Each structure stands twice: as structure tokens, then as C-alpha cells.
Amino acid sequence: MSLIEVKIPPLGESISSGVLAKWHVADGDVVKKDQPLFELETDKITSEGVAESAGKITFKVQPGTEVKIGEVVATIDSSAAGATPAPAAAAPAAKEAAPAPAKTAASTEQSPAVRRVAAETNIDVSKVEGTGKAGRVTKGDVLAAAESAPKASTVSAAVAAAPSSALPASAPVVTAPATGRRSRVKMSKLRQTIAKRLVSAQHEAAMLTTFNEVDMSAVMELRKKYQDDFVKKNGVKLGFMSFFTKAVVQALKDVPAINAQLDGDEVIQNHYFDISMAVSTEKGLVVPVVRDCDKLDMAGIEKAIGEVAKKARDGKLGLPDFEGGCFTITNGGIFGSMLSTPIINAPQSAILGLHAINDRPVALNGQVVIRPMMYLALSYDHRLVDGKEAVTFLVKIKQAIEDPTRLLLSV
């Protein structure tokens, strides 16, 4: 017998422990090399552990246990590598479900998240081209396939999907008793950290929010006119975020006080433009950073945002993806938010909140006209930024969006 230890891998100098949230396989299963074994949640990131060798796995740690970096959580008997692997999603409820389409070898190794999203969106994983390691289909691949599928089928599949067949038996699911009205589940490490940081930001900063509104007509006309050519040349769509990112960079140059942060009784002035982008995931809101936005063109910004958003959805973000941001943009408008007061992403000094675009009557040249309008919200640390600077910054963004030529001329 040749036993190989499965250890918690190092994730960064600042991470010493985490919670083994769930196993992707069952105790006693025969696993393949590089097959995902478990999901580890830390206070900063969520990562997967994979098998270093094929063989029969024996658990040393149960789901929900806090583990330290380097701790042995299982062993793999490599002498049993020739045995028939157990199905990755062998759930008792599967016997009652309708026969599933034949799966490829790659599709049987998918994580529970992939299988759950596939069940909810009625996507056949075997027909999705995987972009993960060894061609493995990721959750982002399934979401992308779902977006390109007809909306009606996605909605009907989500309503019809049964939760009991969407997850494997090995994944712990906390639900309320049939006769109960409440259930209780422990907060994830990531959610605990999000909660602490938000409360800390409110307690430590003199936070204030100023508002403005912007007419989106010019940007919408530009997108409509050049969208097809933009996609043909760059392979990505021209979205609103690239316009706002460019506008933010220009405004940061014009109002440098926003591109600074406090460190005790010292002011640190940033001379670079790494912008944090708020991304909503199943586990909570994360803010990965897009580097050197002042050096990227519109296509480069759209591609960079798409990459960090995909990594966030797939749980592939690492510590470097969060470090060094100067300013944050958050877009609640994609969920229909009309107005909000975003909380500063410490130690940054300000955050821009974007909102839904709605047709509203506005006065223009003495006449009432209908325009696609968006409310903008800038929350800032009043200890460092004065009201004049905050309002000027927001007006600069408004001017750039309403007259995108300013972005070309940097005025």
C-alpha cells in the first residue's frame, strides 16, 4: 500500500488557516489525478484542492472543520488507482430523476457548483467546451452557455430544477426541517470578513456621499453605432464600464486628492490607476483590481473586467488580485438599483456607485424631453477629501459621460 497525504496547500503569507467547506468526492471513492477534492474557504479567498495522484481516498477531516495550512485532511491509496472510479455525483435522488444524457470523462469530474448551475439553467455540461485545467468545464463556462441560450428555457429550467438532484450526496446542505420555519448555518469565512470590513469602514472613516445624475444618451448612441465593429475587431462587447473607468481615471488625474489614502497621520498619494471592480458572486461581493487602467484602451478594459469577473465567479481569485486598488467602482444598476450610498473599500478614500438607467423627463434648452438618466453616487472619506473636491470629481465624470469626446482629448 502506498499512501499519499492530501494537505492544505499554502495560499499566501497572510493566510494561516481556513475552513474545509465541503468535499467534492465521497469517503472511499477512487479519484483521478488532478480531480477536484475539496473546497477551502479562507477570510480572503476560496480555493479548490486537487488530487496529486489517482487512488482511493480516505478522509481525515469532515466538512465544516477549520484546518491549518499544511494539515493532512485525507490520504490517497495509490495502489487502488486501477479500481473503477465512483460516480462524482452519485446522489440518492438520482434514482428518481429522469435519465441524464451520456457524460464525457471530463463532465463527470465537475464540481458541485458546476452541476448545480447546469441543473438550474438546463445546460448539458457534456456539450459545453471547458476552459479549465485539462479541459474541465468551470461554472463560468456554464454561465456563459446559459447566457447564450434562450431566456425562456433558462427560466423554466430554474423553476423546475429540484434542489435534491442538483447537489451530490457528499455536499453538506443545511435546510430547515419540513415543519420548521427557520434554519441556521454558519457564515463563511469570506462573508465574515466582508461583514467586518464594511463595519470597520463605517466606524473608522468620516464617510459622506454626494450625488449627481448623468444623461446616458451620448454613450448609448456610441455603443449602438460602433458595437458591431468593436466586437469584430476586439472579440468583446463595448460596455458602459469601460466608459466609466476611463472617466474615473481622468477625474483622478484632475482631482488627485481622491487618489490618495490615509495611513495614521500621513497621506499616501497614489500616482498609478489600479481600479477595483465590485463583482457579485454566490459567496458574496468581491473587489478584484484591474491594473493600470490609464494605459489600457476601451477594449483592454473590457477584456480585463471580463477576466476578473470570470475568475471571481469561478472562485479562482488569488490574493494578488485584490491588492493595490486606488479607487472602486460598483454597479448596482445591473440588479435594478435606482440609488444607493456605497461603502468605501478601505483603505481607499472613495467609491463610485452606478445605478439603473431609466427614461425620465428632464429640462433641456427650456423644453421637457425624455432622456435615459442614471444616478451617480460618490462616497468619500471626509477626513481627506473636502466636499468641493468630491463634487468636482463627480462633475468631471458626468461631463465625460455626457460628452465622450472629452475622454479622447483628456479634458
Q: What's the CATH C level of the largest domain?
A: Alpha Beta
Q: Overall 3D geometry? A: globular
Span between termini: 71 Å
Helix tally?
10
Helix content, binned percent: 25-40%
The biggest beta sheet is recorded as: 7 strands, mixed
What number is the mean pLDDT? 81
Radius of gyration equals 24 Å
CATH fold field value of the largest domain: Chloramphenicol Acetyltransferase
Structural class: alpha+beta
Q: Which series of helices and strands comes N to C?
A: EEEEEEEEHHHHHEHHEEEEEEHEEEEHH
Tell me what the structure shows.
It is a single chain. It is built from ten helices and 19 strands. Mean pLDDT is 81; it is low at 88-108 and 150-176. The longest helix has 18 residues, at 217-234. Helix 1 runs parallel beside helix 2, helix 7 (240-254) crosses helix 8 (298-313) and helix 7 packs across helix 9. It has three domains: 3-80, RNA polymerase II/Efflux pump adaptor protein, barrel-sandwich hybrid domain (OB fold (Dihydrolipoamide Acetyltransferase, E2P)), CATH 2.40.50.100; 96-166, E3-binding domain (Dihydrolipoamide Transferase, Irregular), CATH 4.10.320; 191-409, Chloramphenicol acetyltransferase-like domain (Chloramphenicol Acetyltransferase, 2-Layer Sandwich). The strands form five sheets. Strands 9, 12, 15, 16, 17, 18 and 19 form a seven-stranded mixed sheet that branches. The chain has a four-stranded antiparallel sheet with strand order 1-8-6-3, with no helix packed on it. Strands 5-4-2-7 form a four-stranded antiparallel sheet, with no helix packed on it. A hairpin with a 2-residue loop joins strand 10 (260-263) and strand 11. The protein starts with a strand and ends with a helix. The chain is an alpha+beta fold and 411 residues long.
